Every structure is written in C-alpha cells, then in structure tokens.
Amino acid sequence: MADQDKKDPLLEKRTSRRSFLKNSGLTVGGLIVGGAVGTLIGRETNETTTTVDPKKAPTPQGDGKANPNAALMFFTPNQFDIANAAVERIFPADDNGPGAQELLVAYFIDHQLASGWGMNAKEYMSGPFYPGEETQGYQGSLNRQEIFTVGLQAIENHSKEKYEKSFVELSGEEQDAVLTDFQDGNVEMKGVSSNYFFNLLRSTTIEGVYADPLYGGNANMAGWELKKYPGHQMSYFNMIEQEEFEVIEPKSLSSQHNH
Predict the structure, then answer these.
(1) Where are the bilayer-spanning segments (predicted)?
(2) Rounded to whole angstroms, what are the CA distances from 125 to 25, 55, 128, 138?
(3) Is 60 exceeded by the pLDDT of residue 34?
C-alpha cells in the first residue's frame, strides 16, 4: 500500500473520486487531464493491479449462483489480463466502493467487442480514409475489435520497453505511467493514435461501471450503489404521493422477468 501520509501538494488539487462520481455523467467520453491515471478519480495507490479469477468473480445479480457473464467472448486470456489491469487503474477501488475489476468491467468490454458494436456493424467503414478534423472523431479503417487488439498489444509492448516487464507485473505507479503515455499520445500505434485508444478504453470502462449487469459489468449493481441509482424499476406509482425521499434498492433488467 502507498504511504497515505506522504501527500504530493499537486495531488491536493485533483478532483476527488467522490466529486468525479457526482459529475461523471458530464465527463464520460471527455479527455482526462492531469497526472497518474489511477489518481484522477480519487485514490493514490502504488499496488500492482492483478486480475480477478473468473471462477471466483462475483455474480452480477448477487444471488450467490455461478456468474454466466464471467466468460470471455472476444479477448484472449492474455488480452483480458491486460485490459482487466488497465481498467482498475482507470477506475480503482477505494473507500467509496469497488473498482473496475470487482465490477467485472473487463468482461463488459469483452462482450461489447464481441457484438456488432465491436465490428462497427452499423457504421460506414469503407474508404477513402483521410485524417479528419478534431470534431469528426476517428476516420481510420480499423473497427473497435481491431483497435483494442492493437491497443492492448501496444500497452504490453510499451510496458516491456519502459520497464522490461509485462503490464500486469508492474506496480500501480508504473501502470499509471504507461497509461498516461497513451493518454498523452506519446506511444506510436499503427492505424490509430494512442490517445484515441486510451479515450476509448476509458469511456468503455465508465460504461461498464454503470451499465445494467445484464451486459457483463456493474456486478451486484455496485456501480449504481455508488450513485444511489435505482436501476430499472417497473413503476414508481406507489411513491407518487410520498413527500419524503425514499432510497430504493436497485433492480436490473434481468429482474423484470419475475413480474
């Protein structure tokens, strides 16, 4: 664990994780600015980010049964380990709640990549390909599956070039430094900029934290618990006349089949 008593004065100015959670609806997809990625939403830690054993992964609905979502559909085991370590640095666990690993965010990303979204199935992907304006977004030929394949390999390669170790073997501080290089666009990648890949990884990480557990992430609806979001309620009819605020236990889409 990092020494919490030794505080960098620059870190004092960074947005806390609590503030981030309150405002994340406005910042999803935006560009992170600042220093180490792992501290941008609150917690400073130099722990090495390790991966969660899929067999021991929590079930999204919290019913104690085996979790069918903890199964890979696109990633190789090595790609999953890199992604799982990276998302935890972007959304780390702290005193406010679980991090991306416990929330199974890497599985969410894996399942999205295995879908039509990962193949850009509903988007025009034919040439010609020319560099676009900043407001036009990505204009290249790679689909999201290819971008993640190239990007995760680039994370691994950059880790070995920078520290002579695999990304999953690095300390938290070293992992942050690698991801910050991607955030700043300082890593050469074929077909896409490292900055674009980092922003795509970050946005899908946040989506995995808050999406319905049906899609693989937000295990036990713990991401919703962080924001006191009630999830998918069938009705609020019995509360219409209530004057006092009531905390509602969240429900996921999968719970609706019981009604």
Answers:
(1) 20-41
(2) 29, 37, 9, 11
(3) no
Q: Which of 215, 241, 245 is nearest to 108 (CA)?
A: 215
Band of the pLDDT at 12, cuts 50, 70, 90?
very low
Q: What are phi and psi of 11, to 5 degrees?
A: -70, -25
Q: What gap in Å lies between CA 139 and CA 127, rounded to an integer? A: 9
What percent of the chain stands above pLDDT 70?
73
Show me where the domains of the chain are located: 2-51+230-257, 77-223
Torsion over CA: 178, 183, 186, 190 (sign) = positive
pTM above 0.70, yes or no: yes
Q: Pull the structure tokens for residue 170.
A: 């690095």
Question: Residue type at 13?
Answer: K
pLDDT of residue 64: 44
Q: Residue 57 corresponds to which tokens in the numbers above? A: 């992964």
Query: Which whole-number Å values give the CA distances from 202 to 7, 152, 214, in the listed order?
Result: 26, 13, 20
